[in-house]
Every structure is written in C-alpha cells, then in structure tokens.
Design goal:
The chain has 124 residues and is mainly α. It contains six helices and no strands. Helices cover 66% and strands 0% of the residues. α1 crosses α3.
Length: 124
Amino acid sequence: MTTRINVEKRREWLRSLRRFKQGVRLRSALGVMDTYCRQVALQRKGSTQWSAPDWDNDKWVTCLYTSIRDEKFPPELLIGFAESAEVTFLNPKKQPTPKDALECMNEVCTRLSKRLRQKFGVFE
C-alpha cells in the first residue's frame, strides 16, 4: 500500500509551519517567551513536582495543529514549550530560557510532524 501525497496540502502545510515558527521566534525576540519562561520558573520554585505537556496526547497535538493552521499563538501553547524546555530534577536551579523553548518547539514539531501532516491532509 503506497501513500500518495497531496502536493497542494503539503505546500499549505510547509507554508503554515514556516509562518508559525517565524511567529514564535518573533515573540521570543520581543520578550514574550522570556516572560513565559520566568512565569514557569516562578511556578516551579520550591516545588518538587513540575508539570509539562504530554505532547503525544491528542489534546496537545490538536492545539498545535490549530495554532499552526490558523497562525495563532495561544499562551497555553507557548507556556507548554517553556515547561517542556527544561525538565530536570537533577539541577532544580536551571530554569527554561527562550532559546531552550525555541529548541523545544522545533523538537516537538519534528517529532509530531507525521501526525500534524495527517491532520493537514497531506497524505491521501
């Protein structure tokens, strides 16, 4: 069984992903991600339980898909990137940075690429 690729949907996916990543990088340059990273660091201060999104959960995949599709940047998604950027219990003083959050965003988009492309209708 071969999977056919819808060229038009693939083009739409690539454009949307590029615009989304540029939007997140812009927010990082404007200091928005820094604010979210500090917020996450404050929430974690003195806490032994850190929360981070389960990116394999359909709720988060759908949130990421709709954000990419609609070029939206909901705070819970950006905070999710910040929470996932630094999850180490060995060094609790190390907190997420905007650079780490951007790397996390790239890793999440890469890891979920196939599921996101399926939602975009790239595969027929």
